[in-house]
Request: fold
Amino acid sequence: MIEVESIIKNYGSVVALDDVSFTVNEGEIVGFLGPNGAGKTTMMNIITGYLSSTSGTAKVCGIDVLEHPDEAKKKIGFLPEQPPLYNEMKVKEYLGFVYELKNCSLNRKEHLKEVMQVTKIYDVKDRVIGNLSKGYRQRVGIAQALVGNPPVIIFDEPTVGLDPKQIIEIRNLIRNLGKGHTVILSTHILSEVQSVCDRILIINEGKLIADEETRNLARVVEENRRFRAQICGPRREVENALRSVDGVVRADATGEKDGEAFTYILESSKGVDLRKPLFYMLAKNNWPLLGLEPVGMDLEDVFVKIMDEDEKRRAPAKRRGR
Amino acid sequence: MLAIYKKELRSYFTTPLGYVFAAVFLAVSGAVFGVFTVQARTSDVSTFCRMMILGYLVLLPLLTMRSFSEEKRLRTDQLIMTSPVSVTGVVMAKFLSALTVFAGCTLLTCLYYIPLSKYGNTNVPRAFGCLVAMLLVGMCFIAVGIFISTLTESQVAAAVGTMATLLVFVMISFFNGRINSYPVRRALSWLSVYSRFTNFTYGIFDFAALLYYLSVAAVFLFLAVRFVEKRRWA
Reply:
């Protein structure tokens, strides 16, 4: 659906994208993840034809964006970082304008109504965009990207500046869009990718450093099994007792205290189930166990870890370069 | 392209800009007509035409200052440039919509000719020639304004920049006669937008002048297209 091949983009002497290649298949929701200034927006602008790359090709539905821009642009709905809204227009007028601009040939009235209902802006259709709240403006921006039912939809940071309820709504919306469209979204919020995307591309300093399915990624990096346990009892003694349990690699109190219970983080070596020996040991010592939950490595950790590894990998190369 | 044309035209009249422009334009033209035609007790409108064209120096930049600079500032250019329309189409749509508002106002000033022809002897070819001259020069000025608005994000900078550029064009016509070197004078006369239309005011349909104005407008619109495209390659 989208094929990006060895894209390089330089702004003067600054390298914004350095040899980035990936493909996105039909019906996938792919998250573009990276710290600020990593090149996410540049990448999206290149796919949508707003910017051109210094070298490399980007194809959408098999059409080269640079060679046949008009054809390629018809296949894409794009929500830029700042929604491109005309403040003096009414919502309905604006979407009508976008409809004409994209040269759509659908049933105009029904299609626009559907788009407004999907994005929940039908109630404000007669209001002037300049008077809408941030959340509504963002949704009008999303509606704009959906006009004309393009097979590929690209969102640049779609949930920035929204309140938690709106964020959940927008994520649900994006997840639903994934059923009929190919979606790329960029974000620096990891939980967003985790909850919405099938696949995740991590980009740092213009380089693609990971391309994995969301589930796999968390599993790949997860080496040890970790638990969070709340146990009543004297902290030092409990800690020592925990360390003596077979299979425990690490046991540390976090310092959190809930009544008489302290919280501990336990790590077991691979393939060992800690839970039973833990229970018997605590029962024997008469230390009640108030809570025990597994701690998966979340994407936050994954991200930091991958970035570290990437830097380590690059550091010797740099030294050699000098 | 039609969508952008319609949107531009509508936005002139959903924001105060269109009304302010029309009001100031008609007030200025009324005053100029009153002073240089009615009070001068003449039915010759060539002075009116010349004075109005000087007025365009200030008026027309107001019409074009917003066109690309505002899109860039509000980032709405991202919508337009990622839609299936060519850059040439966008530039033409913006040019034509500004031209429509300007031509509409100019045609309204034709109403002044009605009482004039009733109480004086209007030379119809000359009056018509003046109208064509005003439209042609205005068209060039709008093309310059559109071009300059592609250079900046600030409306004010676009307006002032356009005024300054147009002023240079007009000054060339005024000072050109004082230059001794013939080749320089000859070269500069190619830029003298303000003197080319003289034949029209005599009631002569000057085909060369028509071509001249069309090509000046085309050159600036072409530059506008190139500068908008260049932004993609930045």
User: Anything to note?
Assistant: Residues 2-229 of chain B form one domain. Chain B has one domain: 2-229.
